[in-house]
Write a structure and sequence with these properties.
- With 368 residues, the protein is α/β, with parallel strands linked by helices.
- It has 2 domains: 3-42 and 271-367, Rossmann fold (3-Layer(aba) Sandwich); 49-263, Glycerate kinase, domain 2.
- Helices cover 36% and strands 20% of the residues.
- The chain has 15 helices and 13 strands.
- The chain has helices at residues 17-31, 49-55, 89-92, 110-121, 141-146, 202-206, 214-231, 243-254, 262-269, 272-275, 298-308, 324-329, 338-341, 345-350, 352-367, and strands at residues 3-8, 36-39, 59-66, 72-80, 83-87, 126-130, 150-152, 171-173, 185-190, 258-261, 281-289, 313-320, 334-337.
- The protein has a 6-stranded mixed beta sheet, with helices on both faces. A 5-stranded parallel beta sheet has the order 2-1-11-12-13, with helices on both faces.
- Helix 1 packs across helix 15.
- The longest helix is centred in the middle third of the chain and has 18 residues, at 214-231.
- 54% of the residues are buried.
Length: 368
């Protein structure tokens, strides 16, 4: 009896990862009804991370927390035992901007701190923060302020939220930070290695995606440089410090967090090696399989672990920009794309579930 592990990431703009896995499973079952199919949707720390854990049987904890502009909104995180998996994008990410309106100077990460505090008060001591998709560039200062840190300007006034306000930061007080922090371990699930500052830093690489103009970026770079002098310049150059608008930096400097590859950490928490036991085939993928995917994205992490276990891996994507040799070098026996079946990208996205079911049937016929 063939055993197939389906471990896709989301197809952004089309289907979440559980939906991708379900569509592939339906197609495979139609051709190979005797196959044992394990659906293990994955993520790399960005959008969809909490959903992936909930699909794996973790408990969803729902609450209300400030979004990136301070407006309260629904939020959630996933828990099992002493571990909480918190996804920044689901609390203060771009999708949480009211009306989709950017606020590059004023957006902050206060809501993330609220969720972390909730998890600490619930007794969780192993806190995993999925970093990605942030709407702000505040160096994690908002997160830390929500956990009890206080920031003042030279006149002793508390700062307003947002990255721009950090330009005036003159004093940082940490005496009243949440007592649960001392007994907790913080791990950052992160798929980028950017430092906080400079040409590869949080502002230069990512701020424009959050609506920042050239003038805004000059201000934000100076603000983060000032913030790093207060919170600990020694962490600014750490790979991953620039993740999520510098939230990585704030967690490194004041929460003493450890940076891990997002997909590697998440596969470890999902006990993926055990799920691979006796598998015949692994199928993974994401919306766009491209050169950026090769730098630690979810499908590559899945492929690496499956190959280590000696199991062949297939890739499924909305589209691919990789050449045949690149696909093979990444560890995939083959790659199936929605655009192979529907060249019109708009139609392939709107009919993703139907097309993925057809791909599931084809790969079952080809490999099972």
């Amino acid at each position: 009896m063939p055993r197939v592990v389906l471990a896709p990431d989301k197809f952004k703009g089309s289907l979440d990862a559980p939906g991708v896995a379900a569509a592939l499973a339906a197609g495979i079952a139609g051709v190979a009804p005797g196959a044992e199919i394990r659906e293990v949707p994955v993520a790399d720390g960005g959008d969809g991370t909490v959903d992936a854990f909930v699909a794996a049987g973790w408990q969803r904890i729902s609450l209300t927390a400030p979004g990136p502009t301070g407006v309260d909104a629904s939020a959630s995180y996933a828990v099992r035992g002493d571990t909480a998996v918190i996804e920044l994008a689901a609390v203060v990410g771009l999708a949480k901007l009211p009306g989709g309106q950017f606020d590059p100077l004023g957006a902050g990460t206060e809501g993330l701190g609220v969720v972390i505090g909730h998890a600490l008060e619930d007794g969780r001591t192993n806190i995993v923060l999925g970093l990605g998709g942030s709407a702000s560039t505040d160096g994690g200062a908002g997160m830390l302020r929500a956990l009890g840190a206080r920031l003042f300007d030279a006149q002793g006034r508390e700062l307003s939220m947002g990255g721009a306000a950090l330009l005036d930061a003159a004093r940082l007080e940490c005496a009243a930070m949440h007592p649960g922090i001392a007994g907790a371990r913080f791990t950052l699930a992160c798929d980028v290695d950017n430092p906080l500052l400079g040409p590869q830093g949080a502002v230069a690489v990512y701020a424009a995606q959050k609506g920042a103009t050239a003038e805004d970026m000059t201000l934000l770079e100076a603000a983060l440089a000032n913030w790093s002098r207060l919170a600990g310049a020694g962490y600014a150059g750490t790979p991953g410090a620039g993740a999520a608008g510098g939230t990585g930096y704030g967690a490194l400097a004041l929460l003493h967090a450890e940076v891990r590859s997002g997909i590697e950490l998440i596969l470890e928490l999902l006990d993926f090696p055990t799920l691979l036991a006796d598998a015949t085939l692994v199928v993974t993928g994401e919306g766009s399989l491209d050169p950026q995917s090769l730098h630690g994205k979810a499908p590559i992490g899945v492929a690496r672990m499956a190959r280590t276990a000696g199991i062949p891996v297939l890739a499924v994507a909305g589209r691919t920009l990789l050449t045949g040799p690149e696909i093979e070098a990444a560890g995939f026996a083959a790659c199936y794309t929605l655009t192979d079946l529907q060249p019109d990208s708009t139609l392939s996205m709107t009919h993703a579930a139907e097309l993925l079911e057809r791909i599931g049937a084809k790969l079952a016929a080809d490999h099972l």
